[in-house]
Structure formats: C-alpha cells, structure tokens
Amino acid sequence: LRASDEFGRLGASFNRMIENLDRSENARQTMTADIAHELRTPVTIIQGTLEAILDGIYEPTVEAIAPIYEETLHVGKLIDDLRDLALAEAGDWSISCELSDLRELVDQVAETVSGSLDHGPRILVSGNTKLPQLKLDPKRLRQVLVNLLSNAVRVTPLDGRIDIRLTRISLDRVELSLTDSGPGIPAEDLPHIFERLYRGDRARSRAHGGGSGLGLAIARHWVEAHGGTITAENVPGAGACFRVILPVPSG
Q1: pLDDT tens profile 75-99
Q2: How far is CA 7 from CA 16, 155, 192, in A?
Q3: Percentage helix, strand, coil, to 5, in the chain?
Q4: Which H or E run includes 126?
Q5: Which SS3 state, helix, strand or coil, does residue 84 take?
Q6: CA 97, CA 178: separation in Å to the nearest integer?
C-alpha cells in the first residue's frame, strides 16, 4: 500500500507486525537449536557412561559415577537458567529490594569464591569503603557477582589476579568493576556476550569449563531490573573488564 492515508498507515503497521513476528520466530528456532545443542553433550556423557557400566566395561565405582553426577548438575543448572531467562524476557520476575551494603556483599562473594578454590588466581577487592547504601535485592545481585567472578576465575591463569573495585562515580551512581588478567574477549564477540547461549567466546564454551551460556544474559536482566547497566570491554595490559553501574537512592 503506497497511500499516505489511514489505509496506508494501517498497511505499514501490518508490515511491521509481520516483520516482528518473523524475528520472534527466528529467535525461537535459534534458541530451540541452542538448547538442544547444550543438552546433547551432558546427555551423551550420561548415556555413554551408564551403558559402559551396564555392559560391565566400567565398575559402578565412585570414580565412574562421579562424572554422571557432574553432568546432571550441569543439566539442572541449565534448566534453572532457562527458567530464569524465560521469566525475565516475559517480564514476569520481580526483585525484592532493601537497603544494602554493596561492599559487604562483594566481600562475602569474593571470600566464598576464594574459599572454594584449591588453587587459583588472587581475588582482590578495593575502592571506596564508605559507599552509600543501595536499594538491592541481595540474592539476585549475589547471583550476578558469582556469575561474573566464576567466569573470571575460569579464564584467569592460576598465578593471575582478579581485581574488583568499587567507586562512586557521581552523586547518583556507583560503579563496580571486575578486571581479570586472562586473555580478554575477542573483539568480534564483545557485542554479543550478553546474548543468551552465545558461544563465540571460547572462554565461555564448555570445552573451556564454561557454563550454560546463559549466565551473562541473566546477569544483564538482573542488573537492569535494579535500574543499572552492565558492560564489558578489554583493558590494555590486562584482560576483560566488566562494569556494573547501579543507582544511588535519592534522599
């Protein structure tokens, strides 16, 4: 319709609607394929190991069963992540905010992750120790921090370091930056790392001990639910740097 009257505008609206439906269908098909890909690996490992035990190739020892258990944990985590992401994209999740000490929360997460490592990079927390209290959902922000820190640990050499710095960058904003000494993020992957199930970055692939490919997408949704932003960049002479900016409550 080339008319510029009401019929023309109606036709243009229908065209936009059709384009949006096409994009949604393509996204659905892509996500279905990605989920199948993510599930195939653990299911294949579980099936193969169980068949070997049933055929008498492996004895049903703790050593033989442990990999099966690890893969069931991965499948469970993938299912939980998919549920969280589906709720986020449907706008059907909420946060329960309370005045919280961000520095205390960061210290707790850093100490927990450090304590879980037999050997690993040093985790250092620095910056302003007298930040204003923020309106946060501690559970959800802890989930964001654990995800970022776990990713950094996976890509940082054992003799490397991870720096977490807290800064009040303006009267109404606080920044949390997390910088690792890993290889950084390939330039072609940077625009996509917060997309669900994106596997371009080798550091996030299962071959390199990565997770489901959903963690950063979920982190972005949780940060945005707090009214904040999250970005990633490479730092010359270091590795990747993730920056989370959160609002300071007025009054």
Answers
A1: 887 787 777 777 776 666 678 899 9
A2: 14, 56, 39
A3: 50, 20, 30
A4: strand 122-127
A5: helix
A6: 23
Q: Pseudo-torsion of CA 21, 22, 24, 26, nearest 10°?
A: 160
Say if residue 122 is exposed, middle or buried (CB neighbours under 10 Å; 0-12, 13-18, 19+). Answer: middle
Asked if 226 contacts 97 with a C-beta cutoff of 8 angstroms, the reply is yes
pLDDT single digits (tens) 11-63: 888 888 888 788 767 766 666 776 777 778 788 888 998 999 999 998 989 98
SS3 162: strand
Amino acid at 247: P
Over the Cα atoms of the chain, what is R_g?
Answer: 22
Dump the DSSP string for 130-152: SPPPEEE-HHHHHHHHHHHHHHH
For residue 77, give every residue at least 6 positions away whose Cβ sits within 8 Å of its Cβ, in sequence order, or none. 211, 212
- Helix crossing, 215-225 with 138-155: angle to 10°? 140
Nearest to 124 by CA among 139, 111, 137: 111
Q: Name the residue with higher pLDDT: 80 or 153.
A: 153
In the predicted model, what is the mean pLDDT of the chain?
84
CA 29 to the chain's CA centroid = 21
Average pLDDT, integer, range 115-128:
86
